Amino acid sequence: EIMAFWDPPSLARLAAASTGLYVTINGSNDVWRALVAALAPLYQDASTKHVVEYQGTWRATAAWLHVQLQQLRGRCLKMSAEAATSMRSPCCRAFEGRPWHSDSMFQSWLCTLMPPDFKRLDRATARKSGLVGTPSAWCASPMFRDVPRESGLSVAEFKQRFEQPNTPVILTDVAKRWRLFELLGGDLANLRTRTDDILRGGAGSGARFRCESILMSLPGYADYAAQQRDERAAYLFDADFNDGPFRDGLWEVPKCFAVDDLFAALGNKRPNYRWLIAGPARAGSSFHIDPNFTNAWNACLTGRKRWLMFPPNVVPPGVYPSEDMADVTTPVSLTEWLLNYYEEARRLHHNVGYECVVEPGETIFVPCGWWHCVINLEPSVAVTQNYVSDSNLGKVLKFLKTMPNSISGIGEEDATDAAALARRRAGFYKEFADKVKAYRPDLAPAVDATLDELHDMERARSEARSRTDAKLERERERLAEIAREVEVER
Predict the structure, then answer these.
(1) In terms of domains, do 72 and 200 share one?
(2) Tens-place pLDDT, residues 15-52
(3) How far apart are CA 82 and CA 70, in angstroms?
(4) What 3-state class would DSSP assign to 199?
(5) 86-116 burial, b if ≥16 CB within 10 A, otherwise e?
(6) Is residue 103 a part of any domain in this protein?
(7) Which residue, 349, 374, 389, sits at the end of a domain?
(8) 445, 448, 450, 440: which is closest to 259 by C-alpha?
(9) Enclosing domain of residue 84
(10) 139, CA 20 to 30 Å: which among 11, 62, 233, 268?
(11) Are residues 187 and 39 part of one domain?
């Protein structure tokens, strides 16, 4: 983290000081990637057309970004094509240093080599069952419960069997009908080759997509996904893809999830709720609960995705949420969790946990409050959306009321007025409740009942605090009286 404040030339000079510093700086991508994350916003904010162009390694990308910023500040001349190529492929003398041993760097290196299907069906068992080389070999999972697969579900069936009981399901017959599924053709690389068909204005549209703190173009991200060798690959996770860059008619909300979307009552003030997701194999999302206690669906368009899921009352091993759920501490990478905690999770929770592989064209329903992680078995593109329905409305209102600091997607990333953000969070449950009652009058009694319950809970907590404070005050007075008596005796 300290090294992220240095500029690339200073880091390069520091790396030459000793074997330990050379290995620490260049032995993994972490230092240079952190530096790119620190420099990228300076470059991206300078122009709405600026995107980070991955140069094959994070070190070369940091050098490229440094030069771009120096040019913007007028501190160096424009480079020729030959000079740019030389910068990306520097002629470095061979490293001469003593052997270096590091357990932490070994763990990171090991995780980059681990296959994303680690701990899945072993080959001997697969061979005996005749599953080797078939898609079902990915789907067999003796360690946890399997997520059921359904097709042709009506909205009523889905709500009765899965949404209301709050249990996961995979819908096999939805996303395969999308135009976007057809355009991608099962290959993440088609984000580059079919850009003109996907984006308004095509490759020259200047559309930028968020990959953590970095903004890239779709073709640029496809190049990065093909070239990277990261322990934890940068994940494209963009909330604005459908508000401008994407052409109309490429996808649609599945009918099972289109009936209820109660955050729509807030109009353009609703929290972020839909994302375009893309990443290479081994990329994914670490264990989390979806924001604001919403339900979610995730449609896989290319590549298989491995899911592990645990019900709300089961926190996975190696996952440490804060008391207000605002922060969650997890291992650095998904493969690190598989290496260190998968067996413990299987031993403790094999009867309540779920594991499955979602195939291209399938859509998984993620119930509210469920812990889940996702790891790409192959390069993957997906579309996901969070929503509130009548089945989880009460839970969402309770979350918004009791955990206001954990409310996300309402502009906290760009907020310049912390006080205004805090005020909106504090009153967001009331704002949402009022809008829902106007949007769906039939739900007004349920909303009022939940608000009354929350009011009663808050009053009960207040009375309990008052009783505790009074008890403490009496105890303080008793101790003070004892102290006075002791003093008199002396």
Answers:
(1) no
(2) 888 888 888 888 878 889 999 999 999 999 888 889 99
(3) 18
(4) strand
(5) eeeeeeeeeeeeeeeeeeeeebbeebbebeb
(6) no
(7) 389
(8) 440
(9) 3-89
(10) 233
(11) no
